[in-house]
Amino acid sequence: MTTSFTQTKVVFDSAAPGVSLVGDLYVPAAPAARSAAFVIIGPMTFQKEQAPTEYARRLAAEGHTALVFDTRYRGESGGEPRAYENPFHKVADIISATAFLRAQPGVDAGRLVALGICQGSSEVIRAVAEDERIAAGVTLAGHYRDREGDIAWLTEEGYAARLTSGQRAKEKYEATGEIDYVPGVDAEDMNVGMPGKFVWDWYHVWADKGLWDNRYAVMSDADLLAYESISAARMQTKPYLMIHSDASFLPDAARRHFEAMPSAKKELVWDGDTPHLSYYDQPDVIDRTVGKISKWSETI
Length: 300
Known about the structure:
The chain is an alpha/beta fold. It has a single domain (about 5-145, about 230-295), classed as Rossmann fold (3-Layer(aba) Sandwich), CATH 3.40.50. The chain has helices spanning about 50-60, 85-100, 120-130, 145-155, 155-175, 195-210, 220-225, 230-235, 250-260, 280, 285-295, and strands at about 5-15, 20-30, 35-40, 65-70, 110-115, 135-140, 180, 215, 240-245, 265-270. The longest helix is centred in the middle third of the chain and has 21 residues, at about 155-175. It has 11 helices and 10 strands. The relative contact order is 0.15. Helices cover about 40% and strands about 15% of the residues. The strands form 2 sheets. Strands 1-2-4-3-5-6-9-10 form an 8-stranded mixed beta sheet, with helices on both faces. A two-stranded antiparallel sheet has the order 7-8.
């Protein structure tokens, strides 16, 4: 099914007093039968115009209402300090976005789905597990968070160094209001928010166009590295679709999370050797992924 849709800028409250979240709401002209509605969150440091929008437009074209939004501290949404990466706050923002979407005309309150891309997956798992209003979860190319995965990502030494640095930066901020920043990505420097040339190759294009803020608050690591999602996976009893591949980030962590879920209605789609970043912006990959998600959503 392909249908036209409207896109509307929306503003709604976060769980933090006085902090608003800004998003884009996509509403199909002709909703699909048994149409689910989707709240979509992207990778670490994401802004809504990136991968989330690619999925929202396609889901709306398939007849689903979809909401993308900037979480606190990024893009058009409020919150200080800027470029602060806090997974706990992102979970709360997903829940706030779900409450907003639930109140929209034509949305079936019993068919709300949270969808996460890359590290957004680790936050979606927890939001779905903890909020009764979310009916199901979808995660793809997920960066799932457990001890084994974090060490595979950063090494023991790197994890300890970043955690210590983040804690010191957070203590400094709380004492003085001063914020220490590093780049979000860099082609060679590993002391950045998301190290690695393949990450730089994708993100710097957005930064060069002024469409993404290449900054990372060092204090983020105090919260980012204190977060894990495996305990939320163990609480996951709702319908759940996980899409991953051998070439997506930390495939072993994805398998551990899927196996940990007690849900009687879970599905793992292992997508061969599809490269991780292909899920962000490669049209054919996103098209087939959205097709799977839309068809699966009919079953919830």
